[in-house]
Amino acid sequence: MNAADGEWRSFVSRMEELAGASGLKFHPVDFEAVPDSFMMEIAVYGLPVRMPHWSFGVRYIHQLIQRHMGHSRLFEVVFPGNPGHAYLAQSNGLAENILVTAHVLGHADFSRNNLLFRRCQEQVSERIVEHAANHARQISAAIEAHGVQRVEAVLDAALALEQHIDVDQSLRRARYPEYLEEPRAPVDDTFRRRFAALESREASAAPEARKRAPVPPHPERDLLWFIAQYAPEMESWERDIFLAVREESFYFYPVFATQIMNEGWASYWHARLLREADFIPQHAYVDAIKCHSDVVRPIAAEQQVALSINPYHLGFSMWEKIIEQSGLAAARSILEQDDDFAFIRNHLTRELAEELGLFRYRARADGQVTVLEQDLTALHEAVLKPKYNFGAPLMAATQMHTDGTLELTHDSATDGRGLDLERSRKVLEYLQRLWHRPVVLRTLDQAGAELRLTVP
Question: Could you please report the per-residue DSSP string of 187-228?
């Protein structure tokens, strides 16, 4: 441990004490300073140890290019849990690490008290780092037993579908009922109840053939679960890999679905704790405040004509306004109940949007929001559009034919987003290798006519 690391660590316990006295409630957090290269690996893989796959290498190269171009710098990566884990870049200065420590404690308070985080962590694991390491060992054992190519083919399909889960369902849900339930007329008087009882005894004496339920009985959005349960020829170890990817997706979903709230809350608290931390040296405090300004500034280009949404800036501004107008207790109630959809729709007001210069815009494919017109509802939907369905097209398994053909349907009307057909076909090819039967995807083309992609 170098001197700078030791100096920063001397402030951690005091910052934790101040955070607790200020009303934050959080699980213990393990802080660790790591090399910048390892920070990028953690950010790309999503966890310190995770199942190996070539796609993570592609993401790593992208992150590396972004950093070398000056577009991205990682100060910290946080993994909620009990305990939480926070990795800080060794290249951070003292002021940056003091700010990041306070920021992490804001995240820890958020993840412990937000209901979506709590529900998903209770179903997966509060010790996700260790849990994911077990998955990685499971993959390594599969590679030894079945070879790299076979395991990679399974991961190709599972990771291509990692966003296609249904968090409204339980992580450990049961398979569909095998048979249809017989419809029964409502019994509304004594005579009918006695007659229904006689009919039931007669039926039990001479049972009719029960009708098998269709698979799926309804459009199924949880594709990882459906394939793991119903693929005709998958081996048990292949199903286990699909379910492991699904578990990790359940863990990551709250991080994605509350990003604006979570980053804003952490930014609000790092700013507040810095102001109240009289034990921070003056030079470090000034540098930390400068760092705070960089974190929560809006991202602007083209002479302020086009704005990208910075979740730190937007969330920080919204929490500041909520606490100023309604108090901390009201803010904590919002934190517990909401995700970004409710947060933006209920609390991004016209006044704040005007103050932040978010009106008169058009969302472009490159992520820029070009100023055009003043429409609050449209602004809300533009901010939230990338978040629908975990950021993936709204897809469901709708039919499994008698020959085993799997039919998927893209809900174009609800989704409002077109498909990248080349990418969609590639995903179907990954899936078909494991399904071992034809896979059909139904969607609409740009003219609104039905389009079918079939593999093979």
Answer: P-SHHHHHHHHHHHHHHHHSPPPPPBPPSSSS-B--HHHHHH
pLDDT in tens, 186-199: 556 666 666 566 65
Q: Clarify whether residues 366 and 407 are in a common domain.
A: no
Instruction: Choose one of 340, 365, 389: the last residue of a domain.
Output: 389
Q: How far is CA 10 from the centre of its chain?
A: 34
| 3-state class (DSSP) for residue 295 | helix
Pair 166, 224 in one domain: yes
Q: Are residues 151 and 245 in the same domain?
A: yes
Residue 370 lies in a domain: yes
DSSP secondary structure letters along 342-411: HHHHHH--HHHHHHHT--S--B-TTS-EE-----HHHHHHHHHGGGGGGGS--EEEEEE-TT--EEEEE-
Euclidean distance between CA atoms 319 and 125, whole angstroms: 29
How many H-runs (helices) and E-runs (strands) does the chain carry?
19, 10
Closest C-alpha to 353, from 368, 338, 369: 369
pLDDT of residue 230: 97
Residue 104 CA neighbour count, 13 Å, CB half: 29
pLDDT tier, 75 (very low <50, low <70, confident <90, very high otherwise): confident
Instruction: List all residues 6 or more positions away from 360 whose beta carbon is below 8 Å from its beta carbon.
Output: 371, 372, 373, 374
Distances (CA, A) of 91 to 59, 86, 96: 22, 15, 10
Both 227 and 163 in a single domain?
yes
Query: Per the domain annotation, does 65 fall within a domain?
Result: no
For 441, the domain range is: 128-174+215-255+393-455
CB atoms within 10 A of CB 402: 5
The answer to whether residue 10 is domain-embedded is no
pLDDT in tens, 126-174: 888 888 889 999 999 999 999 999 999 999 999 999 999 999 999 999 9
Asked if residue 214 has a cis previous peptide bond (ω within 30° of 0), the answer is no
Instruction: Say yes or no to pLDDT of 285 above 80.
Output: no
- Residue 339 clears pLDDT 60, i.e. is over it: yes
Split into its structural domains, the chain has a count of 2
Maximum pairwise Cα distance, the chain: 88
* Six token digits for residue 357: 């210069």
Domain assignment present for residue 352? The answer is yes
Q: Note whether 381 and 400 are same-domain residues.
A: no
Mean residue pLDDT across the chain: 85
Given a contact cutoff of 8 angstroms between Cβ atoms, the answer to whether 331 and 264 are in contact is no
